[in-house]
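For the sake of transparency, this paper describes our internal protein records without simplification. The tokens are whole numbers drawn from a learned vocabulary of local backbone shapes. One such record is reproduced below, unchanged from the form in which we store it.

. . .
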Amino acid sequence: MTVEKGNKLARTILDTSVNDKLAADPKLDSGSQKRIGDQLRAMYDELMQQPVPDRFKELLDQLDKKNGGKEGSQ
């Protein structure tokens, strides 16, 4: 077998096995799901405790003035 044919065969086998793994329905056990959920909630809660940067407040004020101070106009 030549090197070129061997490489082609290896790529074909690799592509097939990767596609089979991707086609399978991924599942996590409930413990892993809970742990990921807890970590995401902790990160989000920490983020929500941070103050809004002054630059963002200024931009929001500019938008309010531009839109005539109307809330829910969209």
About this structure: The longest helix spans residues 3-23. The chain has a mean pLDDT of 78.
